[in-house]
Amino acid sequence: VQLQAFGGGLVQAGGSLRLSCAPSGRTFSTMGWFRQAPGKEREFVAAFGWSGTTTRYADSVKGRFHISRDVAKNTMYLQMNSLKPEDTAVYFCAAARGGLIFSSMPSDLSYDYWGQGTLVTVSS
Question: What Cα–Cα distance (Å) separates residue 66 from each residue in 16, 80, 92, 110?
């Protein structure tokens, strides 16, 4: 199983970017986004259950980022608005073989597959 993340780039503060992630070969019960800034640990950004009814966001991105999916394309998206310099990081998509309970979504240990990262740089 491979996950491919796309859409990173350089954007000015206040701007927007949309990341996408397309797993190959199968669908997953839960998928999410994590990020890792230089010199920092990887942190949870957002995730949703494949039912589409459960989403969870890190407090730092609530109201600015929106996670979604296109079932027909088997693709997950992360729409990032009102970007801040502190959002600069390598963003990773991840998928879990099984469904995750709400409390488990932010833990990277809950995910079984990881894509290569895509760099997002927000200039001030």
Answer: 11, 7, 15, 21
Residues 97, 31: Cα–Cα separation, whole Å: 9
Is residue 87 helix, strand or coil? helix
- Check: CB of residue 97 under 8 Å from CB of residue 11: no
Compute the chain's Rg from CA coordinates.
13
Extract the tokens encoding 102.
């709400």
Contact 87, 80 (CB under 8 A): yes
Phi, psi of 103 (to 5 degrees): -70, -20
Residue-wise pLDDT for 29-73, tens only, equals 789 999 999 999 999 999 987 666 789 999 999 999 999 988 888
